Amino acid sequence: MSSPDYLIVGAGYAGSVCARELAEAGKTVMLIDRRDHIGGNAYDKVDEHGILIHPYGPHIFHTNSKRVFEYLSRFTNWRFYEHRVLAQVGAQLLPIPINRTTINKLYGLSLSGAEVQAYLDQVRQPRDPIKTSEDVVLNSVGPDLCDKFFRGYTKKQWGLDLSELSAGVAARIPTRDNDDDRYFGDSFQFMPDQGYTRMFERMLNHPNITVRVSCDYKQVREQFAGAQLVYTGPIDAYFDHCYGPLPYRSLRFDHEHLPTQAQFQPVGTVNYPNDHDYTRITEFKHLTGEQHAGTSIVREYPQAEGDPYYPIPRPENEALFKRYEALAEQQSGVTFVGRLAQYRYYNMDQIVATALAAAEKLIANRPAGDAA
Ligand code: FAD
Ligand code: UDP
User: Fold this and answer.
1) Where is the UDP-galactopyranose mutase C-terminal domain (predicted)?
2) pLDDT category, 371, cuts 50, 70, 90?
3) Which residue of 134, 147, 173, 328 sits 20 to 30 Å from the alpha carbon of 52, by its own alpha carbon?
4) CA of 189 to the centre of ligand 2 (A)
5) Ligand 2 center from residue 154 Cα (angstroms)
6) pLDDT value, residue 1
7) pLDDT digits (tens, 9 = 90+) for 14-52
8) Which of 9, 32, 36, 41 to mutate to test the pocket of ligand 1 (most atoms within 8 A of CB)?
9) Taking a C-beta distance cutoff of 8 angstroms, is the pair 349, 63 a contact?
10) Tens of pLDDT along 77-93?
């Protein structure tokens, strides 16, 4: 493709959804990714032992948006799956989010739902306003549960104390007075039945889309200078870090295959808030429902250096992002969309929704002279 209408940088959800929408609107699209595969961080593949794994950590699809669910359903069938997580606290494995079972098992009690609520009312430390993640946790469960389940995990995951992170981080985890032990409460919770990569392949299978992997934006910037740009990589890198680097948190993934063990742990993920250098271990067979004599697991070790995986939500980072965003707004013919480009701690479904909105806008604001 010599001169596509659009050059899209990044073949994750943001770039791929935009590519599909623009292609269906009659535009030609060159979609590139510097990695050697599509799917972004949601990429999955069969490991050398025949088990479908997520190289960039566990991805579980969940949403309350019927629109997003129906959109992705065009490219995949689904396997019903509700994720469950246990946290290792002392010698016990306890449900997280904290629920009635967690409190009863931890403290050797047998409280009813109403009694759990009364207990939490007694131990919580009301905070107003709620600004930080520490405020969120202390306000809902008080200091003991905070120290046992949140403070250590957060320090490991972010390299920061709960009090240094915006409220939205810990607010992702609810507190329950019932026995609901699902990690997510959303109305749609599924896994793509043939995996994420297969879903992306179908999404990108369109005559107007050309995909080029192992290709960095810098390599083709000049070649496609005439195309409109959709950029889904880190926004600070686009502007050559002119205001300094935006902090992103990275991870090292330590994958392991256990050939003679059919099951490693009782649920998809076990969190380690207080022990070890890793935050959690995920066993993929729980997520995919695969049958296999062995099993494959991944440990996540948070680190500062490496591929950017998480924007770090705190006021000073938000302020720096705003400076880059102001630069972005001055660019013509460039759209910034996605978790790295918008510096937002977005889940997959939120990225799909954001990308659909961005593509809609691009399609509606046809450049002058476009007769289509
Ligand atoms: P990405 O998937 O990061 O895609 C951006 C792409 O741009 C990358 O492939 C990158 O290689 C490419 N790129 C960047 N710069 C360049 C360049 N200069 N040239 C060429 N290509 C470039 N969400 C959920 O809903 N459920 C989960 O269970 C879940 N678990 C997660 C677990 C982990 C460990 C992580 C890190 C994230 C998780 N997420 C989960 C979030 C999910 O991964 C993101 O919401 C989603 O993948 C973001 O899509 P994106 O397209 O914005 O970014
Ligand atoms: N968290 C925690 N203990 C847990 C689980 C989560 O302290 O057992 C906090 C921690 O700060 C974490 C945040 O809640 O980064 C969000 O957790 P989530 O599981 O949503 O993180 P992700 O899957 O995005 O890494």
Assistant:
1) 148-345
2) very low
3) 173
4) 18
5) 7
6) 60
7) 999 999 999 999 999 999 999 999 999 999 999 999 999
8) 41
9) yes
10) 999 999 999 999 999 99
Residues touching ligand 1 (Cβ under 6 Å) are 9-15, 32-35, 40-42, 56-60, 216-217, 232-233, 251, 309, 338-340, 346-349, 351
Residues 6+ apart with CB under 8 A from 249: 157, 158, 159, 302, 303, 304, 308, 309, 310, 311, 312
Mean pLDDT of 61-70: 98
- Alpha carbons 63 and 354: distance in angstroms, whole number: 13
Contact residues of ligand 2, CB 6 A cut-off: 87, 96, 149-150, 153-154, 157, 169-170, 172-173, 271, 273
The pTM is what?
A: 0.97
Atom of ligand 2 nearest to the CA of 271: 8
CB 272 within 8 A of CB 238: no
Ligand nearest to the CA of 249: 1
What whole-number percentage of the chain has pLDDT above 90? 97
**CB distance 127 to 139 below 8 Å:** yes
* Separation of CA 35 and ligand 2 centre (Å): 27
Give the model's pLDDT for residue 365.
81
Span from the CA of 204 to the centroid of ligand 1 (angstroms): 17
Ligand 1 mean position to 362 CA, how many Å? 22
Q: Domain 6-81+189-247+310-364, what architecture?
A: 3-Layer(aba) Sandwich (3.40)
Q: What is the mean pLDDT of residues 230-253?
A: 98
What's the pLDDT at 254? 98
User: Where exactly does CATH 3.40.50.720 map onto the chain?
Assistant: 6-81+189-247+310-364
Query: How far out from the chain centre does Cα 245 lie?
Result: 21
Instruction: Compute and round to an integer the Cα radius of gyration of the chain.
Output: 22
